[in-house]
Amino acid sequence: MDVADYVIPPSENNGMFVMTNFVRTNQRQSTCAENIELKQAICKNDNICSNQSFIPTMNGRWTGRCLFTPERNIVYQTRSVITSSKGLCEYAGWCPPEDGESSMMLVQGILNFTVFIKTFLEFPLFGVKTKNMVDNLKPCIFDPIHNKDCPIYTIDYMLNQAEDNSTERDLMLRYGGFINIKLHWDCNLDRNIKLCKPKYTFSRLDAPFHEKPFSVGFNFRYSSTWKQNEEHFRTLTKAYGLRFKVTISGNAGKFNFITLTLNIGSLIGIFGIATFVSDIIVLYISKKSGAYREHVFEKLQLETSLNETKDHSKLCVKKNEDQLLNDASNTDR
């Protein structure tokens, strides 16, 4: 048993996988030589295979034997009796091992495949539900000019929107990639909800191939097994493809009189505080706070001095009136 037997690709919510390339290997339970791409499996004798510690990339349990492949006689077009000096360690498991690059098979016409994006949206605060499909939806393909409300997109269109470089697009079809489909809703609920349409954007999430990341593309393995004449068989498939992830965001608004009055009251309060705050800034924080302070205080001092002058003049007039009254009374006597 290996990883392809007990790891089944799970179904994913808000996402999908489209296979664009694959490697298929028909296998049976037997013993055979290891994969030639595994450097640790290259051997010259049985001791190398029997003393080798566990390697995660082994295709099965090593038997301890070193298998030598006969060399072909170019002159007589027959297999030579003399074997090669280097062989491969033998393992017991599913045989033969998977042959990667040489047996890849691209899915023909994959760019013409279409994807129907079907989503539903709810704004619980307003009790409104909607969807990204028109009521009279007919078989269509999205076009930014003639069919912009159609939610059916071709793989070719989405791939071109997510990646501009043609070389990168070809590598994504060969080794897989990760594309995000984002739907953004911006709804004015004072209008008919049918007028609210999502905006679609496509972006690439995996690292570009020219950056040479540790793990490129997107792939996984799955297998189908059966038994015939007491012998176990399976078909191992390594699938490369485009993984699409759908994300939804949005906001909605509706007129509310109470909210309007609260906002107006808040603005009035802010304007009242603004005068107080501006005075503090000008008097204590501004570089020219001294000149502003002198101007304000000088004005207050001038008003105070004028008031004192008026009070003094009133006292003088009152004293003169009292003196005249006293002189008049003395004259009468």
Automatic annotation (TrEMBL):
GO terms for biological process: calcium ion transmembrane transport; response to ATP. Pfam families: P2X_receptor. GO terms for cellular component: endomembrane system; plasma membrane; postsynapse. The keyword Ion transport applies. Its main location: membrane. The keyword Transmembrane applies. It is found in: Endomembrane system. One of its GO terms (molecular function) is purinergic nucleotide receptor activity. Keywords: Ion channel, Ion transport, Ligand-gated ion channel, Membrane, Transmembrane, Transmembrane helix, Transport. The chain crosses the membrane at residues 264-285. Belongs to the P2X receptor family. This is Purinergic receptor. It comes from Rotaria sordida. The lineage of its organism: Eukaryota, Metazoa, Spiralia, Gnathifera, Rotifera.
